[in-house]
Amino acid sequence: MSLASVVIVGAGQAGFQVATSLRQAGYGGRISLIGDEPGLPYQRPPLSKAYLLGKIGATNLLFRPENFYTEQRIELRHDRVTAIDRQNRRVLLEGGEALAYDHLVLATGAHNRPLPVPGAELEGVFGIKTKIDADTLAPLAKQARNVVVVGAGFIGLEFAAVAVSLGSAVHVLELGDRPMARAVSREMSELFSQAHHRWGVHLDFRQGLTRVIGENGRVTGVETSDGRILDADLVVFGIGVIPNTQLASEAGLDIANGIKVDANLLTSDLHISAIGDVACFPCLQNDEQPTRLESVQNAVDQGRTVAARLMGKPAPYGALPWFWTDQGDMKLQIAGLSNGYDSTVVIGSPDSAQLSVLCFRGDQLIAVESCNRPGDHLAARKILSRPPQLSPTEAAAAGFDLKAWEAANRD
Amino acid sequence: MPTLTLIEHNGTAHQVTGEIGQSVMQAAMFASVPGIQADCGGACSCATCHAYVDDQWLARLPAAEGTEADMLEYAVERNDNSRLTCQLIISEALDGMVLRLPASQF
């Protein structure tokens, strides 16, 4: 298959990675990278933490400077794709132009699930997804007196930690009964509950909101599910995302919680791949169930996998998922997927906030969550990537050390 | 602006101009030096921006501590002069620093 032209829709982490990996592997054809946000492609993780705090500037968000794209002949287009013409293998751009492809990569990402209550349109109510969101939010966060965060997931809690450190009173509303319930074990949730409590963040579980209240178009408060009015001059919500599937769906590609792809990350059209937050793939670490992951690791590794396939080295995607979140002085790193775990072994001390939670399903280690124990995290990534398996009995033995076990069982 | 030399495992040397306050990782990425992955973008979460710092320069750097020290234990082919370049902040004092890159970051 000769590929004269690869078109990538979406210039986020996944789209950028495909373009870069193709050139690194010696691809000589045309690469078009189409993004609908202004400016150069950038990293999103710092938007809800280091960038908001001003610890890193706008230049440091960029993956690469402008001359990189010229030198690498990566055609960066600030445009929006309005349709995929599969029959003629071309995409139609908002400007009216049509762009031909031999292979198309959809890396369209996801958008924030909107806050489904009256008043969500008031000024001072934010989701954090783009650099523009963060740029608008940063000065308001510095001035805010009362902040309400909706959703105790990664983004919500990262922002809560930022806001409380800037001197705001912070109240988090979460429908579930613990923080980051979708991603971590009960033990790790508990550690983060305690930490936020220590920092002065008020966590309110089994609690939603019924409306956002405002005056003259600006937010002044929220009403909680149990009827309380909380003052708020800033409301930030992080209640999940919705994959951007519209383009693929209108083109007739299979959709199921994202764009459906096979183990090689191909959609139902063999000239089109989908990767990153938008792709729903059979996940090796999730019993090959259709899975959609929203993470840097997933975007990067899927980008590499597709670039390798296009360069004649196909391999099913099987990279170990890993994630991180930084909240206050706590760095949480997760290796593997913990959903469906039925027992845990805890290493370290909750008092020192240095803790690893090993999550098992039956006898199988499926995930390791490490707080302020980065060595454990990297050891876990090795352990989870290859045999032999660590048993719950071994892990529960007195004085067990994950790094030592990894070193002793290295091949 | 300070100039650094990064030498790939195959011997190819790259002169990289860095800005004060920027990390060595970022200066290397901006100069498109192959051999540094930096999957996490500088959050000190992945240990794929590993490099060996030439001994004469090692002493001028603050020692690796905390997260970096812990992560370094897992860098591939770790050595006494191993550092994670996302944690090395460029200053005038580092003008001329030489770093060598490992064969692989994984």
UniProtKB/TrEMBL annotation, chain A:
Residues 5-303 form the FAD/NAD(P)-binding domain. GO terms for cellular component: cytoplasm. The keyword Flavoprotein applies. The keyword Oxidoreductase applies. Pfam families: Pyr_redox_2, Reductase_C. Its cofactor is FAD. This is Reductase C-terminal.
TrEMBL record, chain B:
Keywords: 2Fe-2S, Iron, Iron-sulfur, Metal-binding. The keyword Ribosomal protein does not apply. GO terms for molecular function: 2 iron, 2 sulfur cluster binding; electron transfer activity; metal ion binding. GO terms for cellular component: cytosol. It comes from the Bacteria. The keyword Metal-binding applies. GO terms for biological process: P450-containing electron transport chain. InterPro entries: 2Fe-2S_ferredoxin-like_sf, 2Fe-2S_ferredoxin-type, Adrenodoxin-like, Adrenodoxin_Fe-S_BS, Beta-grasp_dom_sf. Pfam families: Fer2. Its cofactor is [2Fe-2S] cluster. Residues 2-105 form the 2Fe-2S ferredoxin-type domain. Belongs to the adrenodoxin/putidaredoxin family. This is Ferredoxin, 2Fe-2S. It comes from Pseudomonas borbori. The lineage of its organism: Bacteria, Pseudomonadati, Pseudomonadota, Gammaproteobacteria, Pseudomonadales.
